[in-house]
Amino acid sequence: MFQVIVQFTLKDNIVDNITFRQLYHGGINYRTEEEDQVIIGLREQHEQLINYLVGKDIRESVSDLYTPGEIVREDVDVFTGATLRSGKFISAIRDGLNRGVYRY
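Now predict its structure.
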């Protein structure tokens, strides 16, 4: 199972900061992997995907994640392109928006 949890801050609906709280698949924690270059490369692609939102209006930019190939273009091949499950990121972001503010 692919598990994604993101943490982000908004200022006037603009994404100010976004990070992964959890990025986990197949028994591998992508956030903490330090040796496997494939996993490290995948983590970097996932980071490119969410960092795309920084500086953009959340109401308009989340839908761009439905086409991850338009956002992440570096070092994408058949294997890594198939792993960019942007729907998981969209769901994690919408979950964060729906749950509301955790801290002021």
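The chain has a mean pLDDT of 84.
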